Automatic annotation (TrEMBL):
Residues 7-469 form the Aldehyde dehydrogenase domain. It holds the Pfam family Aldedh. GO terms for biological process: gamma-aminobutyric acid catabolic process. This is Succinate-semialdehyde dehydrogenase / glutarate-semialdehyde dehydrogenase. It comes from Caenispirillum bisanense. Belongs to the aldehyde dehydrogenase family. PANTHER family: SUCCINATE-SEMIALDEHYDE DEHYDROGENASE, MITOCHONDRIAL. InterPro entries: Ald_DH/histidinol_DH (IPR016161), Ald_DH_C (IPR016163), Ald_DH_N (IPR016162), Aldehyde_DH_dom (IPR015590), Aldehyde_DH_Superfamily (IPR050740). Keywords: Oxidation, Oxidoreductase. GO terms for molecular function: succinate-semialdehyde dehydrogenase (NAD+) activity.
Length: 475
């Protein structure tokens, strides 16, 4: 753990193991922190806040810029560690390190663009000035599916705004967090500005984050139930919250779309990170006239995929994070098949040879999915593409919006009017139109409804870490 500029062990030297999800092998151990360590880290962040919040935007920008450079110098090592600890293929891990680094550069730039305002006042002898100030100590909780970019997406804007940070990474991927904090250390950040607490049981640390009055902001990426619980506890202390939660993305393929292009995009985005992404499409609504072509092209692409360790160059799909994840995917597929769906490709665990040691599920295409099936309602977080047939635009927009989630949606159409109508009608924070990757450091990322609150990235991302202060002067 990294607290107040020191690498420290947990009380009593407690540690917990980290395993490779492709092989089940232990790859390291990290300190098992708890309430005491979280409290110490928050105190360090509080002590550092006074100095850090008074640095100039140019100074904070320089630290972030340096961290960006170091991160890119270490790109290959970070990517290899990520493949080993999280499971994604090396190429995807490299892309994630690059995406993660982008947030440091973007917020190095945005630090210098935190503007205030002057506002005409009601009295002639009065002046109004609005300034933006850092919210204070930030507590961040990050997930295992994007173990590096979710750190920089929070730490980048927080530091740029002048906040100090305590971060708890997911228990499945703490080693990536440790290496990211080595980057921050190498960038020369003053002690206490960023602090890392690792823990096997997230609850005690999480509870300290939401109850300690010093923490003014909770930023969380993870599941909807945990996000709601943290938000409700944070409300008792009126802390600010940003939440990036689950999703259940619809993927619409209209009769005027290029079915082949849509199927290629669908298979790429569906199996990215083995389906373990909150923006992963979870329901493929395909127009009746396109189903045959879409299914054939998608199945053809699935047949070419190879599962295995992310470090093997020929592998295109990695393992799921753990046994519970495999069991959840399996249960959803079995439920769908029992209710009449057909597994056109995949449909079961992969247990051949070395795959038996890891947590693998075959990339799967389910045809004939209907609203009665669990997979139609529940987030899968696995490599399964359920296909639902539709006939008209109003009907499909209704079905697409019929979910408590609202993160990402995808639309394939060549009709500009329809594209615009869909973009407006879909109750989702991110809409890809003939595009499967509408994300970048410069663009706001976030959801509506049960998918969360607030936005990360873009010029909006830094607002999450800023307070607005109005000063009225009599002159
Ligand atoms: P997932 O289902 O994707 O693992 P979680 O919401 O369980 O999602 O995990 C996301 C992050 O939230 C992880 O860092 C995890 O340790 C943390 N987390 C889980 N439960 C709690 C909790 N009760 N308090 C604080 N953090 C938690």
């Amino acid at each position: 753990m990294y607290i107040d500029g020191q690498w420290v062990q947990a009380d009593g030297g407690r540690t917990f193991p980290v395993t490779n999800p492709a092989t089940g092998e232990e790859i390291g151990r990290v300190p098992d922190g708890g309430t005491a360590e979280a409290r110490a880290a928050i105190a360090a962040a509080e002590a550092a806040f006074a100095g850090w919040s008074r640095t100039t935007a140019y100074q904070r920008s320089a630290f972030l810029y340096r961290a960006w450079q170091i991160m890119l110098e270490r790109k290959e090592d970070l990517a290899r560690l990520m493949s080993t600890e999280q499971g994604k293929p090396l190429k995807a891990a490299r892309n994630e390190v690059q995406y993660g680094a982008d947030f440091l550069l973007w917020y190095a730039e945005e630090a210098k663009r935190v503007y205030g305002e002057t506002i005409p006042a009601p009295r002639g002898d009065q002046r109004f000035v609005v300034l933006k100030q850092p919210v204070g100590v930030v507590a961040a909780v990050t997930p295992w599916n994007y173990p590096i970019s979710m750190i920089t997406r929070k730490v980048g804007p927080a530091l740029a705004a002048g906040c100090t940070v305590v971060l708890k990474p997911a228990e499945a991927t703490p080693l990536c967090a440790v290496e990211m904090f080595r980057v921050f250390e190498a960038a020369g950040l003053p002690k206490g500005v960023v602090n890392l607490v690792t823990a096997l049981d997230p609850k005690p640390v999480g509870e300290e984050f939401v109850t300690n009055p010093v923490v003014r902001k909770i930023t969380f990426t993870g599941s909807t139930p945990v996000g709601k619980m943290l938000a409700s506890q944070a409300a008792a202390n009126m802390k600010r919250v940003s939440l990036e939660l689950g999703g259940h993305a619809p993927f619409l393929v209209f009769d005027d779309a290029d079915a082949e292009h849509a199927a290629k995009g669908a298979s790429l985005v569906k199996f990215l990170n083995t389906g373990q992404a909150c923006i992963s499409p979870n329901r493929f609504f395909v127009h009746r006239s396109q189903v045959e072509r879409f299914t054939a092209v998608f199945a053809e692409r699935v047949a070419k995929m190879k599962a295995g360790s992310g470090l093997d160059d020929s592998v295109t799909i990695g393992p799921l994070v753990n046994e519970a994840a495999v069991a959840k995917v399996e249960a959803q597929v079995q439920d769908a098949v029992a209710k009449g769906a057909t597994a056109v490709a995949g449909g079961a665990r992969l247990t051949e040879g070395a795959l038996a040691q890891g947590h693998f599920f075959a990339p799967t295409l389910l045809a004939g999915v209907t609203p009665e099936m669990r997979i139609y309602r529940e987030e899968t977080f696995g490599p399964v593409a359920p296909v639902i047939v539709f006939d008209d635009e109003d009907e499909v927009l209704r079905m697409a919006n019929d979910t408590s989630y609202g993160l990402a949606a995808y639309v394939y159409t060549r009709d500009i009017g329809r594209a615009w109508r869909c973009m407006e009608a879909l109750r989702f924070g991110i809409v890809g139109i003939n595009d499967i990757n509408p994300t970048a450091a410069a663009a706001p990322f976030g959801g509506m409804k049960d998918s969360g609150l607030g936005r990360e990235g873009g010029h909006e991302g830094i607002d999450e870490y800023l307070e607005t202060k109005l000063a009225g002067f009599s002159v």
